[in-house]
Amino acid sequence: MSFATPGFDRRRFLLASAGLAGLSGTALAQGYGQAFKVDNDEGRPIANMRLPGEIVGEIPALRGVTYVGPAEAETTLYEFFDYNCPYCRKAAADMASLSESDPSLRIGLVNNPILAVQSAQAAKVALAIQRRLGSAAAWTLYRTLLAKPGKIDGSGALQAAAKLGVPAAEIEGIADSEEIRLALKAQMRMAADLGLSATPSYVIGNTGLLGHPGAKALARMIAATRRCDRITC
């Protein structure tokens, strides 16, 4: 499916997406170490770092974050992801599993399309769905897209999004708006400011995790955060 519909400038869309993808170069050099000794599901160390609390505190104010789980949850797990990251496919299945098994957990999905222009296109479509239909529909789209094999681009995201009941032309129009461009730019800037230069990356409390540790490891860290406000006690 083409983005070339009345009122939609495909070339401008691509150029804007390319500019957003370039933000990854501004990530802070905070290093790939272990602030805490934690292992992934395979028993290997998972890179993590302490994050500035004042910057983490700004995440809830970001526009366009997709949330699943209770708003009053004690613990929120943020995933910063790219639709064309192969590890994000496994992460999406694990996010769904965590959400279903832990009704007290809130998950926040933050777009960080640093791997390809196509990733930024798909992120804009997802943000358009979030803007038009809310987090429940955006959560469905996230799971649908990351369950598909092959590269995900704007056209593929648009086809999947159109099945949620909004005309494709309307989705395109929202995706191409200044509001969506600024929302995506802010989400990517947040990832860069936190030094989350890998996808997926996670934020739990004031700790950043680089890479996907697996559902069991994440569950352990969530439980530890509830007990002692750290990812390991």
TrEMBL record:
GO MF entry, a single one: isomerase activity
Coiled-coil annotated residue ranges, if any: none
UniProt-recorded name of the protein: Protein-disulfide isomerase
Signal peptide span: 1-29
PROSITE patterns (UniProt xref): TAT, THIOREDOXIN_2
Stored Pfam families: DSBA
Keywords, in A-Z order: Isomerase, Signal
UniProt cross-references to InterPro entries, sorted A to Z: DSBA-like_thioredoxin_dom, TAT_signal, Thioredoxin-like_sf, Thioredoxin_domain
Thioredoxin domain sequence ranges: 40-189
